[in-house]
Amino acid sequence: TGLHTEIIDENKLAEHGWVDRGVPHRIKFDLFDLFPNESQIMFFDADIVFLRKFETADFVGDDRFVCVPDTPGADWIRHESAMIGIQPEHYFNSGFFIANRSKHIGMFQMASYLERMVHSGFFEQSYFNWARRLCGVQMLLLPQNFNHLEFFKKDHSETVIGHFISHNFRPYSTGECIEIMNHFFEQRPEK
User: Which of 59-63, 78-82, 89-93, 138-142 has the lowest mean pLDDT?
Assistant: First the structure.
C-alpha cells in the first residue's frame, strides 16, 4: 500500500486500556486516539487479505470517506439501511475504509455515542453508517472487488481486497482466520 503500517495487537490495546473491553470491533471508534499523529488512516479487519496491488496515492488527502458498499440486496442490509435512513446501496461494510482525521473524527465520535445509546446486531458497522448520515460525511464508494465479501466462495479473479467475513455474526478468532486463510492459499492455483 505504500503507507506506514501498524498492527493493532494486544500490546497496542493494552497501551490504551483496551484489554478486556469486549468486542474488538469497538476499537474502530477510537482509531484516531490510538494513532494521534496520523491525519489519515486506512483500516482493514484481521480477516482481510490483499490479493492485488492496491495504490493509496489516489486517496491520500481525499476529504471523502473511502469505503465499499456491503451487500445491498441482502435482507439484513435493507433492514439496517431502513432503520438508519439510508439507501441500501450506501450502506458500507466497515471491514475496510480510509478515513481523514479533520473530516471524519466527528463521525467516529458519533458512531461511538450511537453504540452506547441504540442496539444493533452488527457491532460497529451500522453505527458508522448512521453516524456518516447524521454528520453529512461524503463517501467515495469503491467497487465491490475492493472489499469482496466471502470472496473465497466466489470467482475472485478480479478481487483486489478479499474479506473472509462470516455471515453468522460470530467473529473469527485469530487462529480461525489463519486456518481459513491457509486453507484458501493452499487450494489456490499458482499464477
Answer: 59-63
- Whether the Cβ atoms of residue 130 and residue 56 lie closer than 8 Å to each other: no
Q: Which residues lie closer than 8 Å to 102 by C-beta, 6 or more apart?
A: 39
Distance CA 132, CA 149 (A): 21
Output the CA–CA distances (angstroms, integers) from residue 91 to 44, 95, 128, in the order listed: 17, 12, 9
C-alpha 162/C-alpha 78 separation (Å) is 23
Q: Are 147 and 97 in contact (CB under 8 A)?
A: no
Specify burial of residue 115 (Cβ count, 10 A radius: 0-12, 13-18, 19+): buried
Who wins on pLDDT, 59 or 135?
A: 135
Confidence (pTM): 0.83
Helices (H), 85-173: 101-117, 125-135
User: How far apart are alpha carbons 103 and 126 in whole angstroms?
Assistant: 19
